[in-house]
Write a structure and sequence with these properties.
Blueprint lengths: L20 H4 L1 H13 L1
Protein name: Alpha/beta fold hydrolase
Keywords: Hydrolase
Organism: Streptomyces massasporeus
């Protein structure tokens, strides 16, 4: 998929989460979002 994203991307698999990771693992999702925003 790298060729579809000009600035690259990072795929993060969250164990125990399905189609709604923000509902199933909210702290993990929030931590990843904050890491991204702070980088």
């Amino acid at each position: 998929m790298d060729d579809l994203f000009t600035n690259g991307f990072e795929r993060i698999v969250i164990p125990g989460a399905g189609h709604f990771p923000h509902v199933e693992q909210p702290k993990t999702v929030a931590d990843h979002i904050l890491d991204f925003l702070n980088s």
